[in-house]
Amino acid sequence: MTSNQAAHEERPEGRAEERAQERRTPLDAVHDALGATMTDFAGWRMPLRYGSESAEHRAVREAAGLFDLTHMGEIAVTGPEAAQALDHALVGFISKIGVDRARYTMICDADGGILDDLIVYRTGETEYLVVANASNAPLVAAELTARAAGFDAVVTDRSADYALLAVQGPHAVAILAPLTDLDLAQVKYYAADRAVVAGVDVLLARTGYTGEDGFELFCAPADAKRLWTSLAEVGTEHGMIPAGLSCRDTLRLEAGMPLYGHELTTSVTPYEANLGRVVRLDKPEDFVGRDALAAREKEGPRATLVGLRSPGRRVPRAGYAVLDPATKQPVGEVTSGAPSPTLGAPIAMAYVPLEHAEPGTRLAIDIRGTAEPVEVVALPFYKRQ
């Protein structure tokens, strides 16, 4: 997740008036002081990297990284029928989420295509917080509002009310523990608790998008700098460094986590993305896209998402054609690709027909006119011990 997103590209120049309209997080000055390379992402000015992307990546795998994720969208759904409204709007069985727990889910269109992947936190008996990807937050808010019509529920886009920080990595607990009275050992994976961290009121969630243990902390924008500074001071002793969107992308790729606009689009359903488990066709109530998704489950996916690993050094990138090595004909397309700092080899994800999806299958990728060999491997590429 969700959601959560990352970028490889340097900041586009664009027109001056467009750059002036970029939204800035409450930590913008902090990122500049740290010498971050900034990029425009979904209308936000965000840190791409602070120094070495691979060093930031390794810090998250071996110690911890500190992320500013304020660009994510937060949408509150409240009221006596909030759960029923979300059951109708989303593919998941949201009414089954316990208070202070979270669930990964999706919002699909009537044809089963994926509009966004989401994390839904149940923050009270009749209160939910839906976290959407930055580029999709306005669409998700509008769709939830439309789909909640007829239910006793209120949908409110609260994105401006939150800053979001994340501490990700094996030392995350050790970094947060001295800053809060909350017993972090009692905070389960995909759970959330109201807490005070470094004197700041937060919603502390044990979620993330890196493949490592860690926490995401929702706070008021006015408290973001104070929280960042406190986390950074303690984290330095544990090897934590600031981390940008670029390493977040390679981390999630190694962990086999999809990125909206790459692995997830309206052209695919959760079944092609190997995420059919999030679709709850057993819900008693109807939901948007149910008929199309039921038909796809019965028919089976037409293609499937696979991992690809290259024995060479040339890196597959999104949009490159996947080839049958015997015929040199395209059989699929790379959705994401990057050098893997953990594995020391180029890796990618791609959609291919089922007959080419078995791990061990030899394929090729057209990299600037050369058919570079790759092998299909099981996802994820990396799984923490």
Strand content: 25-35%
Sheet with most strands: 6 strands, mixed
Number of helices: 9
Silhouette: globular
CATH superfamily of the domain at 16-70 and 162-254: Probable tRNA modification gtpase trme, domain 1
What is the helical fraction, as a range of percent? Answer: 10-25%
Write down the overall mean pLDDT: 94
CATH class of the domain at 16-70 and 162-254: Alpha Beta
> Which consecutive residue ranges, at least 5 long each, have pLDDT under 50?
1-19
Order of helices and strands: HEHEEHEEHEEEHEEHEEEHEHHEEEEEE
Question: How would you summarize this macromolecular structure in one to three sentences?
Answer:
The protein has 385 residues and is of the alpha+beta class. The chain has nine helices and 20 strands.
Topology:
Elements: H1 16-20, E1 23-24, H2 28-33, E2 37-41, E3 44-49, H3 53-62, E4 64-68, E5 73-78, H4 82-89, E6 102-108, E7 114-124, E8 127-132, H5 137-147, E9 154-157, E10 163-168, H6 172-176, E11 192-197, E12 200-205, E13 214-219, H7 224-236, E14 240-242, H8 245-254, H9 290-299, E15 304-309, E16 321-323, E17 330-340, E18 345-352, E19 362-367, E20 370-377
Parallel strand pairs: 1-3, 4-14
Antiparallel strand pairs: 2-3, 4-10, 5-8, 5-9, 6-7, 7-8, 10-13, 11-12, 12-13, 15-18, 15-20, 16-17, 16-19, 17-18, 19-20
Explain this structure to me?
Residues 1-25 are annotated as: Disordered. The glycine cleavage system catalyzes the degradation of glycine. Helices cover 20% and strands 31% of the residues. With 385 residues, the protein is of the alpha+beta class. Among the domains are: 16-70 and 162-254, Probable tRNA modification gtpase trme, domain 1 (Gyrase A, domain 2, 2-Layer Sandwich); 73-157, Aminomethyltransferase beta-barrel domains (Alpha-Beta Plaits). A 6-stranded mixed sheet has the order 11-12-13-10-4-14, with helices on both faces. A 6-stranded antiparallel barrel has the order 15-18-17-16-19-20. A hairpin with an 8-residue loop joins strand 12 and strand 13 (214-219). Helix 3 (53-62) crosses helix 8. The longest helix is centred in the middle third of the chain and has 13 residues, at 224-236. The chain is globular, with a radius of gyration of 21 Å.
